[in-house]
Design goal:
Blueprint (H helix, E strand, L loop, with lengths): L4 E2 L7 E2 L8 E5 L5 E8 L2 E5 L7 H10 L5 E5 L11 E3 L15 E2 L14 E4 L5 E5 L5 E8 L2 E4 L7 H10 L5 E5 L14 E3 L13 E3 L12 E4 L4 E6 L5 E8 L2 E5 L6 H10 L5 E3 L13 E2 L2 E3 L11 E3 L13 E4 L11 E3 L6 E8 L2 E5 L5 H10 L5 E6 L10 E4 L17 E4 L6 E5 L4 E9 L2 E8 L2 E5 L6 H10 L5 E3 L13 E3 L31 E4 L4 E4 L4 E8 L2 E5 L6 H10 L5 E7 L8 E3 L28 E7 L28 E5 L5 E8 L2 E5 L6 H11 L4 E5 L11 E4 L16 E2 L10 E4 L7 H4 L1 H4 L27 E2 L1
Parallel strand pairs: 5-7, 19-21, 27-29, 34-36, 40-42, 46-48
Antiparallel strand pairs: 1-51, 2-8, 3-4, 4-5, 4-9, 6-9, 10-11, 11-12, 11-16, 13-16, 14-15, 17-18, 18-19, 18-24, 20-24, 22-23, 25-26, 26-27, 26-31, 28-31, 29-30, 32-33, 33-34, 33-37, 35-37, 38-39, 39-40, 39-43, 41-43, 44-45, 45-46, 45-50, 47-50, 48-49
């Protein structure tokens, strides 16, 4: 076997000249952004040998030079077939930052020991040039394409089912569900493109689809095309006895996901059974009753009405990043399965699927349940039905399909089982006509937290008899709060704040004298006064703060270290390759503009936990909490955390971000959150107050400004309680517009935007509000004093976001290339 050693010094390697995209091309691939790499030199096209270090860094340079997005794969061995003619480049070494392949290190033109069986190839992602705007999520909306330097709409007549297939696939939204014309998602702005998109339907991105001049011009915005995609493309039940029973699995792109049992209920189960041709659901056992799946676990919540024919017709939200273990995977048994006659299968004989007389299948017949049931047995039945937890257990008169004189008794459960078959064996007996167990499950009664800036903190409100009402603070303590957090799947209770901390509610005061032990699964399991019997007013409404309450902030208002509040503590978000689209989404959530630059630096507080790592948002994610990441606290930060610099205006030299803001429900939106900062004072806890809104920092009028307002601002800035509330431009006037006026806080609000206020009212330019707080609050205080720092936004001196140096070429490149 021939071996050849070429000894070269690094100084003799040629730094090849800069070239345009016309100097490189991809040949023999399925699209313009995939194929064998060929370069143009000395009037002739030639190939690149993969021998040496042909890798993703090299492929990335080729993709970027061609305007084809990011590298997906770097291939060798003539994957796209052998070329012919010259082999121009070999032993290529790119750092990844070059703008052209010819800028990468190489021994020189034509220097190689290769044949065309080693020709290099790449597959690129292609740029993202399509988005859906104005829908209920990022998988529905008006179709917009990026062309030149702006976004434009597409005429309904120029867009068909094959085009829709490609768009839904590209956005990671599954298959197209519905095409809509007549500007169903609102009329767009800018140009209606005068080209017809002619996809075949199999392309991976619309970038690869041919176009032709439209025959339907002129076309107005009244004919803008809209599209609704399905999200998940396939559904199945796995691990069961047949196709009508098993673990719920949903296919997203090319991966099968299992579903967390906390995100799945009887209505979704009925829809899935109907979709699979398996009838209706007779049991919804959780706790991985059908064994563990092998794919990732989905936290998507399917909000089905129950009458849909397919899951794709249900609204889907991703409301939680709470950990869901392999012991919490949802399962379904449909009545088309042989398991529907499994002993212990339960149904309710009333009109409601989550409330009524209990019937259990046992020894080949359905029987009513007699004797006495505790909340433990009722909880298992509710869980098995996918109806939440037990609210009520009572006796009722016999009716329905069960026998009138024979019933089942003897069930004994711990309350943690996922199916009655896991409880003790029942037995038949003759029951009196008055003995019949009935239950009511929590899906007929609702609980929520309001006014806390998230679903896991706020005033406790319960839905009863069709009306939302509050809970009185009499006897309310941390044990009661623990039950609320558990029932809402919000972790554990961090605090039970003072009465009316989250503001007074309205409507009835439903519950009083709540006396939970703390281990109950539902607030309905706790002793209370009878519904609506209370002498309390709304000034005594209780609130709760749970460990799964999450917030995020930037350390300097709309720039700085990205930090998140979780489990009662502010912590860091690791950099680890965070992309600008992810950072842009965060800026939009913080109302800090629609673009962002992301870099890295060290944490501001070395003692703060590193909460999140490997955050990578997908096109359809609308909040940071929906984006995939490593589990809470699991990280490889290496002391580099994310730094964001948000801007409200886009760089004319950069392509417009594919992310967009919308006023539509559930769509990625620019929220009403106002980042705050204080300027002109000493340190980060005193100065003139400024609020970021509409792309600029704006001042606050000093009219009605007092210590209650200052208290809220100091809390939000992460400073100890306010010492002074200033007007009359004590800290100077600044250059911003006076925007916010007549602020009237109670002092207990979590955010300034929760306070009554006016905007754009008249105010003297010299009357600008300022605050003096007593100093910075240390990170550890967050867990101890939620009242002071739960929504803190620290303002610290500028941090320098240092970039790590690019690695040099391997040392041995300087000495030897072995072939």
């Amino acid at each position: 076997m021939e071996r050849c050693l070429l000894f070269l010094s690094l100084s003799s390697l040629l730094l090849l000249s800069t070239a345009s995209r016309e100097d490189v091309r991809l040949v023999n691939g399925s699209s313009p952004c995939a194929g064998r790499v060929e370069v143009y030199h000395d009037g002739e096209w030639g190939t690149v040998c993969d021998r040496g270090w042909w890798d993703m860094s090299d492929a990335g340079v080729v993709c970027r030079q061609l305007g084809c997005g990011d590298a997906v794969d770097a291939l060798g061995g003539a994957h796209f077939g052998p070329g012919s003619g010259r082999i121009w480049m070999a032993y290529v070494y790119c750092r990844g930052s070059e703008s052209s392949l010819k800028q990468c290190l190489s021994p020189g033109w034509g220097i190689h020991n290769c044949n065309h069986g080693l020709d290099a190839g790449v597959i690129c992602s292609a740029p993202q040039i399509v988005r859906l705007v104005g829908g209920t999520d990022l998988c529905s909306g008006r179709v917009e394409v990026h062309h030149g330097s702006s976004w434009g709409t597409v005429c309904y007549a120029d867009f068909d089912q094959q085009d829709a297939e490609v768009v839904c696939r590209e956005l990671g939204c599954g298959a197209p569900k519905e095409l809509r014309g007549a500007a169903a998602f609102g009329q767009g702005e800018g140009q209606v493109w005068a080209e017809e998109i002619q996809c075949g339907g199999n392309e991976s991105q619309i970038y690869f689809c041919p176009t032709a001049p439209s025959q339907n011009q002129p076309c107005s915005h009244g004919n803008d095309v809209g599209l609704v995609c399905s999200g998940y493309t396939e559904s199945r039940l796995a691990g069961g006895h047949d196709i009508c029973s098993g673990r719920v699995e949903l296919k997203y792109q090319d991966t099968w996901w299992t579903v967390c049992d906390a995100c799945w209920d009887s209505r979704a189960s009925n829809v899935l059974c109907r979709q699979l041709g398996c009838g209706t659901a007779v049991a919804v056992p959780g706790q991985t009753w059908f064994g563990n799946g092998s794919g990732p676990i989905s936290h998507d919540v399917f909000d089905c009405r129950g009458n849909e024919t397919r899951l794709s017709q249900c609204a889907v939200s991703s409301w939680s990043r709470a950990a869901c273990s392999r012991e919490q995977e949802a399962g379904v048994i449909c009545n088309g399965s042989v398991l529907s006659t499994l002993d212990g299968t339960v149904r309710l004989a009333g009109e409601s699927e989550c409330g009524g007389p209990v019937e259990v299948y046992y020894q080949e017949t359905w029987s009513r349940v007699g004797g006495s049931w505790s909340s433990r047995e009722a909880s298992v039945a509710c869980r098995q039905l996918g109806c939440g937890s037990a609210v009520q257990v009572y006796s009722s008169s016999p009716s329905g399909t069960g026998a009138s004189d024979v019933c089942l008794t003897g069930f004994e459960c711990s309350g943690r089982e996922s199916h009655l078959v896991n409880c003790s064996t029942p037995h038949n007996l003759t029951c009196s006509s008055r003995e019949r167990v009935s239950i009511v499950c929590s899906n007929r009664r609702s609980l929520r937290l309001v006014g806390g800036g998230g679903r896991c903190a706020g005033r406790v409100e319960v839905l009863h008899d069709g009306s939302w009402g509050t809970v009185c603070d009499d006897s309310w303590d941390l044990e009661d709060a623990q039950v609320v957090c558990r029932q809402l799947q919000c972790g554990t209770a961090l605090s039970a704040p003072l009465p009316s901390f989250f503001g007074p509610g309205n409507g009835p005061v439903w519950l009083d004298e709540v006396g939970c032990v703390g281990n109950e699964t539902s607030l309905w399991d706790c002793p209370t006064a009878r519904w609506g019997q209370t002498d309390c007013g709304h000034k005594e409404d209780v609130g709760v703060v749970c460990s799964e309450f999450k917030e995020m902030r930037l350390s300097e208002g709309c720039s700085g270290n990205l930090e998140v509040f979780y489990n009662g503590t502010w912590g860091n978000v690791c950099w680890n390759g965070m992309e600008e689209d992810t950072a842009t989404l965060i800026c939009q959530e913080l109302n800090c503009g629609n673009t962002s630059k992301v870099s890295r630096t060290g944490p501001r507080e070395e003692s703060a936990p590193n909460w999140l790592d490997h955050v990578q948002c997908r096109p359809h994610d609308s909040t940071l909490w929906q984006c995939p990441s490593a589990p809470w606290g699991e990280n490889k930060c290496d002391k580099t955390v994310a730094v964001l610099n948000c801007t409200a205006e886009e760089d004319e030299n950069e392509p417009r971000s594919k992310l967009s803001c919308s006023s539509a429900k559930n769509q990625r939106s620019c929220t009403n959150h106002w980042p705050l900062r204080v300027v002109g004072g000493a340190g980060g806890c005193s100065g003139r107050l400024e609020v970021f809104h509409g792309g600029s920092w704006r001042s606050v009028c000093g009219d009605s400004w007092d210590m209650m307002d200052a208290r809220v601002v100091c809390r939000q800035l992460g400073c100890v309680l306010g010492q002074g509330a200033h007007g009359n431009a004590t800290f100077g006037t600044g250059n911003g517009t006076l925007w916010l006026t007549e602020v009237n806080c109670r002092g207990t609000e979590l955010h300034l935007w929760d306070c009554p206020h006016s905007v754009h009212s008249s105010c003297r330019s010299q009357n600008q509000a300022g605050v003096t707080c007593t100093g910075d609050l240390v990170m550890e205080d967050a867990a101890e004093s939620y009242d002071d720092v739960i929504t803190a936004v620290d303002v610290h001196p500028d941090s320098v976001a240092g970039e790590l140096a690019e690695g040099d070429a391997p040392e041995y490149y300087d000495d030897v290339i072995t072939t």
